[in-house]
Design goal:
It is a single chain. The protein has one domain (about 10-90): GroES chaperonin (10 Kd Chaperonin, Protein Cpn10, Chain O, Roll). β2 and β3 form a beta hairpin. Helix content is about 0%, strand content about 45%. It is built from no helices and ten strands. The protein has strands at about 10-15, 25, 25-30, 40-45, 45-50, 50-55, 60, 70, 75-80, 85-90.
Length: about 90
C-alpha cells in the first residue's frame, strides 16, 4: 500500500460512490444518464472547520474544479486545500 502524506494544510480525499439507483418519474435511469455524486471522504489530513474538528472519515462536498488528481494503488484520489471545501455531509449512506 502506497502511503501519501499531504503537505501543509492539504487534504487527501477519495470520491464516495452512490450505489443507489436513480429514478426520475418512476423511470430507472441508465448508468450513462446518472449524475455522479460529488461527495468525498477524507483519507488523510485534518483541519479546523468552523470550530469543529473534521478529520479522517468525514464526508465533504468540494469545489468542482480545484482538485489535484493522483493515483494511489490503482485508485483515484484527490488533494485539496481547506478553502476548496464547500461543506461537509452528515449521515451520507
Amino acid at each position: 500500500m502506497t502511503k501519501f502524506i499531504p503537505n501543509g494544510e492539504r487534504i487527501l480525499v477519495k470520491r464516495v460512490k452512490d450505489n443507489k439507483d436513480q429514478k426520475v418519474g418512476g423511470i430507472l435511469l441508465p448508468d450513462s444518464a446518472k449524475k455522479e455524486q460529488e461527495v468525498y471522504e477524507i483519507i488523510c489530513g485534518m483541519f479546523d472547520y468552523f470550530e469543529m474538528k473534521v478529520g479522517k472519515g468525514s464526508k465533504l462536498i468540494l469545489h468542482p474544479y480545484n482538485k489535484i488528481s493522483i493515483n494511489l494503488d490503482g485508485e483515484e484520489h484527490f488533494v485539496v486545500e481547506p478553502k476548496d471545501v464547500l461543506g461537509w455531509v452528515e449521515d451520507f449512506t
